[in-house]
Design a protein that fits this description.
two-stranded antiparallel ribbon, 12 helices, Transferase(Phosphotransferase), domain 1, disordered N terminus, disordered C terminus, 378 residues, alpha+beta, globular, Phosphorylase Kinase, domain 1
Length: 378
């Protein structure tokens, strides 16, 4: 992959310049009091969720439109940067598989992002819940996989900008009333110039279990980093389990890395072992499901050049007659050296960025993703 000279691919980070640029987008600017009234003064009853950046609230505007409001925590320095990044990027993007930014509000220390409200919340609330997961038949899951791929294709190749999302995960895929997926959270996204193919991050941000090896260990990211994360997401959608704490069998004590187990199952001809049992009832769909696993394995190859582009992935998903390459061993196989180098790179006290990682516990396997950064966990 072609490397450019040291060049920062991110939008300008000077606070004054960014605030001025955001402030000039008057058509997207909301009056703070209008949003405060819409959310019933950010009441607990209207609260949809809480993250390291702050809280998200449901609101209803005076004209009856429902909105989702992200209110950044006042003490979140990282959130301030992410706020500006998200406004500058999403204001320029429009695609059916990207969450739509309706506007923002700046007043004093208050920073609000206003989005379209999506009634089915995020994919992780469905796919990792034993009860809700049963509501997602293969048709719905395949629609989600294809929709996310189309959203990434727009970001990588079809928009007038080239954008790497950098935090592609189930929690950042929102679902509308018809279960159409929309990629959300562009606070960590990076904008590239057309001639650029790769960037280097001075700080590692993202979510444990989704990060590509070249990014996790060396801070290098590209469109293929998003492809890796997409591959992990495909595996999670097929299995209904989290990558970093896949349960092999009924025992809750038997957990391993999903990519490693998937590869061993593929190699041994027992790939149906990883498929969500709720999907196995309709054996007529098994070929489609196994093909999706095949595509997922191609996306999580250790070598960047071995991973397909997202345009190739979309083609694979839409053309069942297209033959697929044979995948090799994926990155982060549970007992290989890459996995151990990955974990040690995130926990090394000698790392200049003092990267932090919280390894998943049994409770996190059932509830929360663990994100990492050099500032605060998200």
């Amino acid at each position: 992959m072609r490397r450019k000279k040291k060049q920062n691919p991110v939008p300008p980070t000077n606070t004054e310049n960014e605030t001025t640029e955001i402030g000039n987008a008057e058509s997207l600017k909301y009056n703070f009091n209008v949003v405060r009234v819409a959310t019933n003064n950010f009441s607990n009853e209207n609260k949809l969720g809480q993250g390291g950046f702050g809280a998200v609230y449901k609101g209803t505007l005076g004209d009856g439109r429902e909105i989702a409001v992200k209110r950044l925590a006042r003490d979140s320095g990282q959130g301030e940067v992410e706020f500006k990044n998200e406004v500058l990027l999403l204001a320029k993007l429009k695609h059916r598989n990207l969450v739509r930014l309706l506007g923002f509000s700046l007043e004093g220390s208050e920073r609000l992002l206003i989005y379209e409200f999506l009634s089915n919340a995020s994919l992780d609330q469905f796919i990792f819940d034993p009860t809700k997961r049963a509501l997602l038949d293969w048709k719905k899951r395949y629609k989600i996989i294809k929709g996310v791929a189309k959203g990434l294709l727009y970001l990588h190749e079809d928009s007038r900008l080239m954008i790497i999302q950098r935090d592609m995960k189930a929690g950042n895929v929102l679902l509308d009333a018809e279960m159409n997926p929309k990629i959300a959270d562009f606070g960590m996204a990076r904008l590239f110039n057309p001639e650029e193919t790769q960037g280097e991050a001075s700080r590692i941000v993202g979510t444990y279990g989704y990060m590509a090896p070249e990014y996790a260990m060396h801070g290098q990211f590209s469109v293929k980093s998003d492809v890796f994360s997409f591959g992990v997401l495909v595996m999670e959608i097929v299995t209904g389990q989290k990558n970093q704490c896949f349960q092999n069998g009924e025992s809750t004590d038997s957990t391993e890395y999903l990519l490693g187990f998937a590869w061993k199952s593929w190699r041994n001809g027992t790939i149906t072992d990883i498929i969500d049992p709720t999907l196995k009832a309709r054996s007529g769909l098994m070929n489609d499901i196994i093909r999706s696993i095949h595509i997922g394995l191609l996306c999580v190859q250790e070598d960047v050049s071995d991973r397909p582009t997202i345009s190739s992935v979309v083609l694979m998903l839409n053309s069942h007659s297209l033959s697929l390459p044979v995948p090799s061993e994926p990155a982060f196989l549970g007992n290989n050296n890459t996995f151990h180098r990955y974990v040690s790179s995130l926990t090394s006290s000698n790392d200049s960025a003092n990267r932090k990682v919280a390894k998943p516990t049994s409770s996190q396997c059932s509830k929360n993703d663990v994100s990492i950064s050099d500032i605060v966990p998200r």
